[in-house]
Specification:
Elements (H helix, E strand, L loop, with lengths): L7 E7 L3 E5 L7 E4 L2 E4 L6 E4 L1 H6 L7 E4 L2 E2 L2 E2 L2 H16 L8 E7 L5 H13 L5 E5 H8 L10 E6 L4 E7 L2 E8 L4 H15 L5 H11 L10 E7 L6 E7 H24 L3 H10 L1 E4 L8 H9 L3 E2 L7 H10 L2 H9 L3 E3 L1
Parallel strand pairs: 1-9, 9-10, 11-16, 16-17
Antiparallel strand pairs: 1-2, 2-3, 4-5, 4-6, 7-8, 10-18, 11-12, 12-13, 14-15
Helix pairs in contact: 2-3, 4-10, 5-6, 5-7
The structure holds adenosine-5'-triphosphate (ATP) and magnesium ion (MG).
């Protein structure tokens, strides 16, 4: 990025469920929902972005739509993603901010294709950035977790997002092996909606299902059976009904997709070549991403794999925090670029 002097750093992690932005290391991460509200007939007409759009979802008329510009961790619509990014940056900075004098670092999944990376680069340019860097999210998360990725010894990162799960082996700044799976924590939301509809004839929104998962969900059988009373309409009769949904209900609901997810992760681990095995046993698994916050998931993974599992206090922020670390360190950025873990665009 020679020739441009930057007045500020901006790191952004745009996921299918949430967009995270950090403008400096002392201020907290800003999180907003990855949605925008557009005109139903003319999608270039944007009425709201982020949490404001999410709040209006279902409450506005038929002439508007709430859409996500990010799908499976990749930008599906660069123009709308740029509007979402600018709105998240504005929320983080506390005022409208142009990006032309900022060094912008964006994360992307390891499994992103060239086309998907180009769409992310386009998002940065449409948002007004003169230049930007794209960094692979598992590498950014490992940086945040202070894993020693500068060494040749392998580090294993398992990241679970809303719709993408990745298992990556990192050594000497490079991802040397990876498995990208198009599933994540939002599969649990769908399972909760199905279960509550079948058991209680109550139709839940994704929002409520996700809250139930976050508050009552567990990756191991719950010991205390806490519950939430929910109100809505009976899906068959249309009459108002209430249901007491318990932690055990949520556990039963997510049991199958959870087994599938943890099974896929274990399967990816067993297929890692034996030469990495010693390092991975020694260094453990770095577990990251919002989906990994499911209660007791780290314990379950440790139990399933018999490998130590490490997590930061706020796994959903790891990638954006790591991206900000990289944004402020030229030498590190160059090393990441040489290892194809970061790309200047
Ligand atoms: N405490 C929690 N318990 C269970 N799930 C949680 C918890 N906190 C967040 N999640 C889930 O984590 C997911 C969001 O994680 P994250 O922000 O990493 O995803 P994303 O980056 O938007 O998605 P992706 O990277 O797959 O595109 C959501 O599905 C959310 O419900
Ligand atoms: Mg993500």
């Amino acid at each position: 990025m020679a020739g441009i002097s930057f007045s500020s750093l901006i790191a952004a992690d745009m996921g299918s469920a949430s967009t995270y932005v950090m403008t400096d290391e002392k201020t907290p991460v800003t999180r907003c929902r990855s949605v925008v509200m557009v005109d139903a007939l003319k999608s270039s007409e944007v009425y709201a972005a982020g949490d404001e759009a999410a709040r209006m979802s279902g409450r506005s008329g038929q002439d508007t739509l709430v859409v996500s510009p990010i799908s499976y961790g990749a930008v599906a619509d660069s123009e709308l993603a740029a509007i979402l990014l600018l709105s998240a940056v504005e929320k983080s900075a506390g005022h409208r901010k142009t990006l032309d004098k900022s060094r912008l670092v964006l994360t992307c999944p390891e499994g992103a294709t060239r086309v998907e990376r180009a769409a992310l680069a386009n998002t940065a340019l449409l948002a007004g950035a003169k230049k930007a860097v794209i960094i692979k999210a598992p590498v950014a998360a490992a940086l945040c977790m202070q894993r020693k990725i500068d060494r040749p010894q392998a580090q294993l990162v398992v990241s679970i997002g809303a719709s993408v799960t990745e298992v990556s082996v990192i050594s000497s700044y490079a991802i040397t092996l990876s498995r990208h799976m198009k599933t994540g924590s939002s599969a649990f939301d769908s399972a909760i909606i199905d279960y509550v509809r079948r058991k209680y004839s109550l139709l839940l929104s994704r929002e409520v299902a996700s809250e139930l998962k976050e508050q009552l969900g567990s990756a191991v059988e719950p010991r205390e059976d806490a519950s939430h009373t929910l109100y809505g309409r009976n899906v068959i009769t249309g009459r108002p009904v209430s249901a007491n949904v318990s932690a055990m209900d949520v556990y039963e609901a997510i049991k199958r997709p959870l087994e599938e997810l943890t099974g896929m992760i274990s399967d990816a681990l067993y297929n890692i070549p034996v030469e990495y095995a010693g390092d991975i046993l020694k260094n453990g698994i770095s577990l990251t991403g919002g989906g990994s916050e499911l209660f007791s998931l780290a314990d379950r993974l440790k139990n399933d794999t018999q490998i130590d599992v490490y997590q930061s206090g706020e796994p959903c922020y790891d990638a954006v925090r790591g991206a900000l670390l990289a944004a402020g360190d030229d030498r590190l950025l160059r090393r990441l670029e040489n290892a194809y873990s970061a790309y200047e665009v």
